[in-house]
Amino acid sequence: MPGNISSVSVPTKVHEGQKPGTSGLRKAVKVFTQEHYTENFIQSIFEALGDRLTGCTLVVGGDGRYYGKEAVAKIIKIAAANGVGKLIVGQNGILSTPAVSAIIRKYKTLGGILLTASHNPGGPDADFGIKFNCENGGPAPDAVTNKIYDITTTLKSYKIASGINVDISKIQSTNIEVDGRNFTVDVIDSVNDYVELMKSIFDFAALKKLIQGSTERSAFQVLINSMSGVTGPYVKRIFIDELGAAEANTVNIIPLEDFGGLHPDPNLTYAVDLVNTVKNGPYDLGAAFDGDGDRNMIIGKKAFFVNPSDSLAVIAANLDSIPYFKKTGVRGYARSMPTSGAVDRVAAATGVEFFEVPTGWKYFGNLMDAGRLSLCGEESFGTGSDHIREKDGVWACLAWLSIIAHSGKSVEEILQAHWTKYGRNFFTRYDYENCASDAANKMMLELEQHISNPSFKGTKLTNADKSYVVKHADNYAYKDPIDGSVAQKQGLRVLFEDGSRVIFRLSGTGSSGATIRLYVESYESNPTTYNEDPQKILAPLLNIALQLSKLQEHTGRNAPTVIT
Ligand code: VG1
Ligand code: CO
After folding, report:
1. Residue ranges of region Disordered (predicted)?
2. Per-residue pLDDT for 2 more than 80?
3. SS3 per residue for 449-499
4. Architecture of domain 193-422
């Protein structure tokens, strides 16, 4: 490269629709590869950072999906031209979402750019995504993403230093002079910092003993499935190299640009392979992670399913199994609004402060930064703590293994004991993917009108032998207790007298069409119900929800595409 590279300003035209959703901007690869599309969005992120951009350090990495490396190359050139001082880039552009969060915090950078569409499929005909995380390591709050979006709507040009070419396959530091300023690209090992953090949180010696077996207990068989996403290298280092699991106890640990053509979403539908292998195999625990490594699914022996809402509650009730929380203490619990109230009961029993926030990890950050939140989760297979500001799939699996090592119980025994103590919050989520947007919007609008009619309150809704009386219904709004910011229209809720709930939301992570999510929850304290199928227990409430929303009439769908 020449000694001093100069940047140029390239005129561009506005691309419509660059509005980040629940978690970043997600679109088809074909949209991102349009002329100037990616460049515009990156330039807008930089402009939104204002004066703080000059000389700053940012982290860049992603889940290894198709178009990731091209995007890193563009970010390097655009960052240099905009006066960024240093980029810390994962080798080959690989960094899991939790690893980016950890690295931002460890090196105290101004933030990071994550190249991921998370659990959405990858490849030339599938999705790509770009997300900005702030200096606390968490997803940018609405105020920042709105600012980025506003800039995209008027952008006239972007700056780029096209002469820069850094080989990101090699761990190395490159110094370049750009427009007379110093610009550095540090390509780092993708897993080192994250593994170090995990070792500071968990008792690796105890986990190793669990996995390898000891005189007291035979080896605990895990089956860890990375779904060809980014967690592969992390799983290899932690489970195989550190904890001594056999290679055969891990699957799909090579990140693939198209995730092997599969949907890298750890749920009972898309991780059915794992479910079947564990069902018929010798495994004590199965775990799967999504494309970018922030989601987790945990199943026990014979594929005993741990609902993510329960997973959160169980971890909350067992934080003393994890050394990190012994050091920090337990400051508070939180869950997203649609997540079941199982964790609320743990909070009440332990006297720990509790928060309910809208869907999306960005709403947990302020509470953590204020020292009021230690552990939180979402029903969408997201669990995490204040060790970083993202949900963390591998962390959740290590948390479960810690609880197992500490208690000597199986996954199922842990759940049974939990229900015996707290009762069971039955929960299910129905996803209707790829509905026509107009139909979905109309359904939501009509449902909102219906439930906001004052006479709706007190209505008795009946199906089969069950009746539910409406206690409250609204379009959920959240006021952040730390900065007072308000998030409106976060989902239609119908709350019943007995604590049961029905919730409707439109997904904010899809790249096209609309996905309707229906969440249904009911609490049972009668032990004879605990081992019932949630679909059976919740059937009357599900029917009520479908009638209330006229979902089939609006969308033509008579069944969901995914049931959790
Ligand atoms: C979904 C989940 C939400 C999660 C978000 C990002 O959002 O419901 O709980 O935080 O995905 O997860 P939505 O708007 O589609 O319901 V991930 O793993 O994509 O970063
Ligand atoms: Co994800």
Report:
1. 1-22
2. no
3. HHHHCHHHCCCEEEECCEEEEEEEEEECCEECCCCCCEECCCCEEEEECCC
4. 3-Layer(aba) Sandwich (3.40)
Domain residue extents for the chain: 4-190, 193-422, 424-563
- Is 309 near ligand 1, meaning CB less than 6 Å away? no
Query: Regarding the domain with residue range 424-563, which homologous superfamily does it belong to in the CATH classification?
Result: Alpha-D-phosphohexomutase, C-terminal domain (3.30.310.50)
Pick the atom of ligand 1 nearest to 22's CA. 14
Task: Please determine, for residue 498, whether its predicted confidence score (pLDDT) is greater than 90.
Answer: no
* Active-site pick, 23, 101, 118, 500: 118
Is 485 annotated in the active site?
A: no
Q: Which atom of ligand 1 is nearest to the CA of 336?
A: 9
Tell me how far the alpha carbon of residue 499 lies from the centroid of ligand 1, in angstroms.
Answer: 25
Asked if pLDDT for residue 23 goes beyond 90, the answer is no
Q: Is the pLDDT of residue 521 over 60?
A: yes
What's the whole-model pTM score? Answer: 0.92
Is the fold of 193-422 the same as that of 424-563? no
d(CA 29, CA 70): 11
Report, as an integer, the average pLDDT of 113-123.
95
Q: Could you report the per-residue pLDDT of 455-474, keeping only the tens digit for each?
A: 999 999 999 888 999 999 99
DSSP for residue 44: H
Task: Kindly report the protein residue whose alpha carbon is nearest to atom 1 of ligand 1.
Answer: 509
Ligand 1 atom having least distance to the Cα of 360: 10
358 lines ligand 1 (CB under 6 A): no
SS3 content of the chain, % helix, strand, coil (to 5): 35, 25, 35
Residue 226 pLDDT grade (very low, low, confident, very high; cuts 50, 70, 90): very high
- Distance from the alpha carbon of residue 193 to the mean position of ligand 1, in angstroms: 25
Angle of CA points 401, 402, 405, to nearest 5°: 85
Ligand 1 centroid to 342 CA: how many Å? 20
Q: For 4-190, which CATH class?
A: alpha beta
**Measured in angstroms, how far is the CA atom of residue 23 from the centroid of ligand 1?**
7
At 22 the pLDDT is 77
Residue 381 CB–ligand 1 contact under 6 Å: no
Note the ligand closest to the C-alpha atom of 117.
1
Residue closest by Cα to atom 15 of ligand 1: 507
Q: Which of 11, 24, 25, 18 is nearest to 150 (CA)?
A: 18
Q: How confident is the model at residue 515 (pLDDT cuts 50, 70, 90)?
A: very high
